[in-house]
Amino acid sequence: MVSRYALIIDPATPDDPRTDFTSTFSEVDATAPALSVGELSTQRGDGIFESVGVIDGHAQEVQAHLDRLAHSAEICDLPAPNLEQWRAATVLAAAHCGPGESVIKLILSRGVDHGPAPTAWITANPAPDFAGVRVRGVRVVTLDRGYDSAVPARAPWLLLGAKTLSYAVNMAAIREAKRRGADDAIFVSTDGIVFEAPTASLIVRINDVYVTPAPTGGILQGTTQLSAFSWMQAQGLTTEYRDVLTDELHRADAAWLVSSVRLAAPITEIDGTTIPLDAEFTARLNEYLLSPRD
Amino acid sequence: MVSRYALIIDPATPDDPRTDFTSTFSEVDATAPALSVGELSTQRGDGIFESVGVIDGHAQEVQAHLDRLAHSAEICDLPAPNLEQWRAATVLAAAHCGPGESVIKLILSRGVDHGPAPTAWITANPAPDFAGVRVRGVRVVTLDRGYDSAVPARAPWLLLGAKTLSYAVNMAAIREAKRRGADDAIFVSTDGIVFEAPTASLIVRINDVYVTPAPTGGILQGTTQLSAFSWMQAQGLTTEYRDVLTDELHRADAAWLVSSVRLAAPITEIDGTTIPLDAEFTARLNEYLLSPRD
Q1: Are residues B28 and B100 in the same domain?
Q2: A102 near A135, Cβ under 8 Å?
Q3: Mutation target among B102, B106, B123, B157 for the A interface, most CBs of A within 10 A
Q4: Do B77 and B205 lie in a common domain?
Q5: Is ipTM strictly over 0.90?
Q6: In which element (H, E) is residue B162 found?
Q7: Chain B residue numbers touching A107 (CB-CB < 8 A)
Q8: What is the pLDDT of residues B81-121, one digit of tens each?
């Protein structure tokens, strides 16, 4: 198993007619210097990314990740990515992942300060072992995101629908959750509406309906949440996008944080209130999420 | 004149007894690869920075920048920086700046993903030519920051008092200002209180008092604003820290955006309302800011 793999990508425009992008990829040593100190990703978190789960060398839900990459680029006024080029890079990186679970990151930076073009690269690494947390679950705390629920629509410069490299607040929220004795956080609005977790989407089951906050600009559309909903619908279960009130969380009869690499982590506690853990259902959901999916 | 200079720094702890840190600096080619793709600064904007102005090889207000670096590190749960080491690196980088104006950046990243220690580096580059804008001024628009003025105190995980590398929103705000035909932005709270500009502090003159928003957690304490206030006080002028209402901006009889490299840019227009430009005072203020200061 190659443990770490990285490619620097010379970004193509969307109308590039090539079908083989191999010549635009340069393999680099993931542990050696590869980026200059002038990189705007490092200086300003100015860029976007995707984290793609890989199971036994198969990259999961690539199209959904590529669609979101293009959406993030648009919100951030970055040049539109050539999605076929990114797909080819993703497939190539996945081929270098061994058996088991890995994670591929797609990163598109605004480039070098005053430079001519974006910088792009992709990395593949073994995933952390999340087998335990998928069974035993996570305790979460709700944290004020500081925004009311109408902010995303009226202030697009806050980039709330984009998956940017400026994740310092997301990381700080997880540290704050740990300080409070929990494992993870859920961001909520100042007017009592649930947004999302710092690095995951939320699904709650209330009265046998699987509910997730509507992705109306304030939150990212979760690729794993999308996939989980399609599976639930195929099982004949009822799913719903709607505003979720913070107060409702404590009445959920089950809840999960879902993301591309950790997959479905059942929530066992929210702000100290115990949430029932549906072990059987969680196991089936993760079994589905661990199966190869496009 | 060396146009670009960069040092990678092996971060020392604050209690490191050395007085000579030369052996902890490695000069690198600022245009060549120096950072690995695993850097959390690039992946998550997870780190802090300072931009120090340099005039004819003299780094300005170094202590104020070092103090703010330490303050940002504390807010972000980063290991406390050894300020004497950073001072030595700053002096060394300044010595490689030629005559005229330059900019030194101090960057402290959380390090490589799952790595043992932070990554630190410093760069020196020629400053853009801001001579014109210091005379002719900037047009600004106010932009909703999405937060009410009480958010910073109640939600420290939003890192509002820290100068983090997660500046994608700051950059997006400047792009939005340009889309609106202006040059720069001023962030305001949802309850009508002025915060700061994306990369500068605001000083307004109202009834012969020089006023700046109080740095109570929601905004950075501006090093150049501090220096400008001390100069104004020495001139016998009245300065004041207080809440500034958005509505007051349009009644200012003069206003400036002040920052370490552009220095004092007079504001000529706010949201389409003309603000008087005090050319003589602005010239004297910039003359002071261009003089060597510690």
Answers
A1: yes
A2: no
A3: B157
A4: no
A5: yes
A6: none
A7: 37, 42-43
A8: 999 999 999 999 999 999 999 999 999 999 998 888 899 99
